[in-house]
Amino acid sequence: MPDETGQSGNLSTSSLDREDPTLARHFKGHKDAVTCSDFSPTNKQLATGSADKTLMIWNLSPKSRAFRFVGHQDVVTSVHFSPSGELVASGSRDRTVRLWTPNIKGESTLFKAHTATVRSVCFSADGQRLLTASDDKSVKVWSVHRQKFIFSLNQHTNWVRCARFSPDGRLVASCGDDRTVRLWDTSTRLCINTFTDYGGPATFVDFNSSGTCIASSGADNTLKIWDIRTNKLLQHYQVHSAAINSFSFHPSGNFLISGSSDGTVKIVDLLEGRLIYTLHGHKGPVLAVAFSREGDHFASGGSDAQVLMWKTNFDALDYREMLSRHRKRVTPDPPPHLTDIHPRSPHLHLPHSASVEINPAVTDVHSVSPHVVDVGEDLFSSVGAGRHASGITDSRERFRTSTGSASSFTRTQHQEEPREEENLRPGVSGLQEERTGTPPALRSTLEHIVQQLDILTQTVAVLEERLTLTEDKLRECLDNQAVILEQMQQQDESHGD
């Protein structure tokens, strides 16, 4: 079909105004594969989980610290922000789920959720319930505020890889290694539909923003979109050359991104029904992708332990004008879903279809990797199963030996502008020596002093953190003591009667 320039080709008229996505930031901090990611509702934080057993919260404002949460005893497999942003849920191969407060205290509540690896966690839209899926073949629903198990969904015959609430919370979609995608009614707790058209394990599932469609991916390299009202397959993409590990709908419903073991991130235009971008930024499989709540950014994480944050750009289109060119594809009744995808027979989009290849120079990203503060119960408490004490000396030594991966509260002044000692390091050119006029011995002394000051401020920060935690524990002990005294008084009164 000829475009506006009069030339025939695979690019449609809407592609002429599209801007390519660009790499915005590059986060370093995880020590092993990045397995999951999620943006906060405020778009101020990004949470990622890793095979290094930690959860990290990246604050997206410039020069902000990142927090590494320690508590899980094995790979963190899934992470999800609550709708309010006040909690972060994480699932792990250690068979537990944790609810974290995403701040410096690193407090968490432990759910002993399943008898096998927890693969997926998801909050309901109202934040009242938590959905978990596991290798124990079950999907479980929990009360967040009461922190209690409510019910299980048990019809999968193999590992359950992923489970998601519908936007209104009335449905649950789940998928797994039994090669099925199941749809559940949360009120009756029954499986109301099963999609089985898969040549391998189903790896990921999610609802679109309107809740009328679900997308699911498979180890057979396919991505499928179903209309759950008519049970029809709307679109079928085969743009990856290896298993798809994760995908995410753009909030508008017009785009979908996917991450694959082929090492690429693909972006599909759901209105045009075709692949539009292939992003090469990771060295190895891409395990996690996620759009921000506003859709202006998306993140990707991979086996290379890298977290990349991309600026979307391509979503800034006039879709009213675009839809006017596609009137024949608009569904008048019922209301459009997936922003006007007309149900049609399955079709394949082969890898050779025209798309823009983007190869960002990841090592050339100008944004500075944030300093990371280690927080969590395992670092600062010896109470509870699976926790271990970490003394002030150990913490100080950890900060001293860390090279740019740790930070303190008082180090902010060094983050906001280049440190003066960077111009005083050995190896400076003779021209710089002449300009500064500082003798080498004095430079060495000043550098040593600055290093000692860094160690001191870091140690003070650790002490402050431990003091805060100690105060909290003391307050908790006093509260418990008051309860015990009250109970003893009641017992004395009952005996006296």
From TrEMBL:
Subcellular locations according to the entry: Cytoplasm, Cytoskeleton, Microtubule organizing center, Centrosome, Centriole
Coiled-coil boundaries: 446-480
Compositionally biased residues, Polar residues: 401-412
Bias type Basic and acidic residues, positions: 413-424
SMART domains for this protein: WD40
Start and stop residues of the WD repeats: 27-68, 69-100, 111-152, 153-194, 195-236, 237-278, 279-311
Region Disordered, residue ranges: 385-439
Top-level taxon of the source organism: Eukaryota
Cellular component, GO annotation: centriole; ciliary basal body
Record keywords, A-Z: Coiled coil, Cytoplasm, Cytoskeleton, Repeat, WD repeat
Any one of the GO BP annotations: multicellular organismal-level homeostasis
Cross-referenced InterPro entries: WD40/YVTN_repeat-like_dom_sf, WD40_PAC1, WD40_repeat_CS, WD40_repeat_dom_sf, WD40_rpt, WDR55/POC1
Record SUPFAM superfamilies: WD40 repeat-like
Protein name listed in UniProt: POC1 centriolar protein homolog B
Species: Silurus meridionalis
